[in-house]
Amino acid sequence: MKVGIPRGLLYDQYHPFFTRFFTELGAELAVSPPTNRAILDAGIQCCVDEACLPVKVFHGHVSCLKAQCDLLFIPRIMRLYRGEYICPKFCGLPEMVLNSIYGLPETITEPFYADSMAGLRKWALRAGARITRDRRRIKAALEAAIAEQLRFKTGYDDQGYPIRVALAGHPYNLYDTFINMNVRKKLNRLGIGVVTEESMDEEEMAPEVASLFKKPFWTFARKTYGFISASVAGKRVQGIVYVSSFACGIDSVILELVRDRIGDFPMLVLKIDEHTGEAGVDTRIEAFADMLERSGRVEDHHSPHGQRLSCCESPV
Ligand code: SF4
Fold first, then answer.
1. Which of 74, 76, 77, 87 most suits a substitution to test ligand 1, by most atoms within 8 Å of the C-beta?
2. Which atom of ligand 1 is nearest to the CA of 90?
3. Substitution candidate for ligand 1 out of 55, 179, 217, 276 with most atoms within 8 A of CB
4. Do both 22 and 121 map to the same domain?
5. CA atoms within 13 A on the CB side of 73
6. Which of 28, 122, 176, 283 has its CA 20 to 30 A from that of 145?
7. Which InterPro entries match (predicted)?
C-alpha cells in the first residue's frame, strides 16, 4: 500500500506526525517534491480561480502525486486548539480537490481534530482502518506519531544581525520558499535577521490576544496577532514583514487588527499570488530595509521616540 502525501499547506509543520503514523502502519510513502513551477502551473490549471495561492499549490501537489500512490491523504484539518478552527478552506479541502482533479486514487479525508486525545484517536482509527484492521497497531502508530511530532521543532530565530524583523503569516507562506520567493534569504542578504512565532511562548502572546474585544475564532488570527503585538510591545524587533495570500479573508481581518494595535510601527505587507513577480518583491524588500536602516531604529529602538515610521502595503 503506497500512501501519497502532498507537500502543501500544513505539511511543513505536521509532516513528522503524518509520515510516522502511516509508516508505522506498514504503508510505503510517496511525498510530492518541494513546490516548483510545474506544480504551481498544475495547481492553477485544475483549481478554481478564486482560491488563494496556497490552496492552488496544494492542488498542484495532488496532481503531481495522483499516479504514484494507491491511497491519497488529503488532510481535512479542522481544529488544532480547543474552540478554534483553521480556515473554511481547510474544512472543505477534500471536496475542492475531489471535484477539481480527475483520476484520483482512493482518498483519506477523515476530519482531523487535534485539540483532544479523543479527537486524535477517532481520526487515527478511521484513517488507519484504510490500511489495517489491527486496532492495537493503529493505536501504537498514533502514540509514535504524537511522540515524533513533539520532538519536531520548526521556525526561524536568526541571531547576529544588526536588524531583526518579525516574519509573520501562515506557515505555508513562510516555509514554502517557492511561494514566498525565499523572503528570508532576501532579508538575510540585506543584513536583516528574521524571527517567527514559534520562537515565542503562547503565554507571551496571551495578554495581547486577551486585550481584543473578542477572542479570535481562527487559530491563525489568534497566533499571528499575538505574535506581532507581543513582538512590538516587547521591543523584540525593529519591523514586521507580513507575507499574506491575496484573497485570504483571515489575513484581511488580522491586518486590520494589527494596524490598529501597532500604529505606525514599520510593517511591510507582501501580498502574493501566482502573478507576483520576484523583481517587485525584491524592490519592496530593499526599500523596506533601507527605511529601517535610515530610521536609526537599530540604535534607538529602546528610546521612547523610537516608533516613527509607517506601514506600507501595495500589491507587488
Ligand atoms: S487561511 Fe487564508 S491563505 Fe490559508 S488556506 Fe485559508 S484562505 Fe488560504
1. 87
2. 5
3. 55
4. yes
5. 33
6. 176
7. CoA_activase_DUF2229, Dehydratase_Activator_Redct
Tens digit of each residue's pLDDT (9 = 90 or more) over 90-103: 999 999 999 999 99
**Which range (170-174, 210-214, 226-230) has the least confidence?**
210-214
117 plus 20 within the same structural domain: yes
pLDDT-based confidence at 216, cuts 50/70/90? confident
| Closest alpha carbon to 97 in 130, 54, 52, 60 | 60
Residue 157 domain flag: no
On whether both 110 and 249 belong to a single domain, the answer is no
Range of the domain at 280: 163-313
Q: Name beta bridge partners: 168.
A: 242
The cell for 242 is 507580513
Residues ≥6 apart with Cβ < 8 Å to 56: 40, 43, 44, 47, 274
Distance 271 CA to ligand 1 centre (A): 12
Residues 49-68 have pLDDT tens digits of 999 999 999 999 999 999 99
- The verdict on residue 275 lying in a domain is yes
Residue 49 CA to ligand 1 center (angstroms) comes to: 14
Question: Of 116, 151, 186, which closes a domain?
Answer: 151
Same domain, 37 and 65: yes
Residue closest by Cα to atom 6 of ligand 1: 87
Same domain, 127 and 39: yes
| Residues within a 6 A CB radius of ligand 1 | 52, 54-55, 87, 89, 170, 220, 245, 248-251
Please identify, by atom number, the ligand 1 atom nearest to the C-alpha of residue 9.
5
HSE-CB of 265 using CA atoms within 13 angstroms = 25
* Cell reading at 24: 508505522
Predicted local distance difference test score (pLDDT) of residue 300: 54
Does one domain contain both 46 and 188? Answer: no
- Pick the last residue of a domain from 151, 186, 216: 151
Cell numbers of 276, please?
507576483
> Which of 61, 170, 173, 252 is the pocket-test mutation for ligand 1 (most atoms within 8 Å of CB)?
170
